[in-house]
Amino acid sequence: MGAELFTTILEALNNPFAMRILTYLLHQGEAKLSDILMFVSGISKYRSVRKTILSLEAAGLITRKVISWGRAKRWDLKLTKLGEKIARSLLESIKTALKEL
Question: For residue 22, with 0-12 CB atoms within 10 Å meaning exposed, 13-18 middle and 19 or more buried, which class applies?
């Protein structure tokens, strides 16, 4: 893994809703943007969640498929293999750390 990719991944994970989005996708498999918005924060945080999703996509942790009809668009989101590995590793690390408290 190159230093640039590593930095991009760390920056993506530093976004406010990154772990919640990764966790949701890990458990659900695939989700629409509206599902993630409701799970993460409600519709009021659309811009922050959207920015986080775009940074996770740029880091190669999720894929985004845009389906358009007329002016409407739907985003279908899914973890990549790298995203799944990182999400599982982070959750396991957190669980282990909590057990040790």
Answer: buried
How many domains is the chain partitioned into structurally?
1
pLDDT, tens digit (0-9, with 9 covering 90-100), for 86-95: 999 999 999 9
Q: Cβ distance 36 to 79 under 8 Å?
A: no
Question: How many residues appear in the chain?
Answer: 101
Start-to-end CA span in the chain (Å): 32
| pLDDT at site 12 | 92
Q: Each residue of 49-72: pLDDT tens digit? A: 889 999 999 999 999 999 888 888
Give the HSE-up count for residue 78: Cα atoms under 13 Å, Cβ half-sphere: 7
Domain containing residue 83: CATH number? 1.10.10.10
Side-chain-side CA neighbours of 68 within 13 Å: the count stands at 2
Does the global pTM surpass 0.85? yes
CA atoms within 13 A on the CB side of 16: 10
